[in-house]
């Protein structure tokens, strides 16, 4: 009887520790640099921005200062991985370095989500409260 109680207590303890470890792993705050192995936007890179409206992709011309502001915004961005999937054509903006256009970032403003083209199934919740407001100032 005493042995069964110890065994049950041990199993409960193991499950509790495993649950805590899994929670910490999946709720870990990340940066863009953690998600992508190399520097996504270099400070010197020119950036291409496109707006998606009614299923159409519309190029947006932005000044060098606003491009630098975007780079800074993404450098400081805190993310948490999400299990949700988002169709990229439902995004509000596509942002990519002109030097490597295949490395696109799809921005979903209302959902506060970004999706990286290299990891099309992975979406990330943006932890910055000012992100939506800042990106609208830079791009509108």
Topology:
Elements: H1 2-26, E1 30-31, H2 32-35, E2 47-53, E3 56-60, H3 64-75, E4 78-82, E5 93-97, E6 105-108, E7 113-116, E8 123-126, H4 131-139
Antiparallel strand pairs: 1-4, 2-3, 2-5, 4-8, 5-6, 6-7, 7-8
Number of continuous helical runs: 4
Helical residues, percent: 25-40%
Instruction: Please state the structural category.
Output: alpha+beta
What is the β-strand count?
8
SSE sequence, one letter per element: HEHEEHEEEEEH
What low-confidence regions span 5 or more consecutive residues with pLDDT below 50?
Answer: none
The neighbouring-strand order within the major sheet is 1-4-8-7-6-5-2-3
Tell me the radius of gyration: 20 Å
CA distance, first residue to last residue:
70 Å
User: What's the shape?
Assistant: elongated
> Main sheet?
8 strands, antiparallel
Beta-strand content: 25-35%
Mean pLDDT figure: 78
Architecture overview:
It is elongated, with a radius of gyration of 20 Å. A hairpin with a 2-residue loop joins strand 2 (47-53) and strand 3 (56-60). The mean pLDDT is 78. Strands 1-4-8-7-6-5-2-3 form an 8-stranded antiparallel β-sheet. The chain has helices at 2-26, 32-35, 64-75, 131-139; strands at 30-31, 47-53, 56-60, 78-82, 93-97, 105-108, 113-116, 123-126. The termini are far apart. Helix 3 runs antiparallel to helix 4 (131-139). The longest helix is centred in the first third of the chain and has 25 residues, at 2-26. With 140 residues, it is an alpha+beta fold. Helices cover 36% and strands 26% of the residues.
């Amino acid at each position: 009887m005493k042995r069964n109680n110890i065994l049950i207590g041990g199993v409960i303890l193991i499950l509790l520790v495993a649950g805590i470890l899994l929670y910490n792993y999946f709720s870990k705050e990340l940066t863009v640099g953690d998600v992508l192995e190399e520097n996504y936007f270099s400070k010197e890179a020119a950036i291409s921005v496109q707006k998606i409206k009614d299923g159409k992709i519309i190029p947006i011309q932005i000044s060098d200062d606003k491009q630098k502001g975007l780079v800074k915004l993404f450098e400081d961005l805190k993310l948490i991985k999400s299990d949700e999937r988002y169709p990229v054509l439902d995004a509000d903006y596509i942002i990519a370095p002109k030097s490597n256009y295949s490395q696109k970032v799809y921005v979903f403003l209302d959902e506060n989500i970004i999706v990286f083209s290299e990891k099309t199934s992975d979406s990330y919740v943006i932890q910055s409260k000012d992100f939506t407001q800042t990106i609208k100032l830079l791009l509108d």
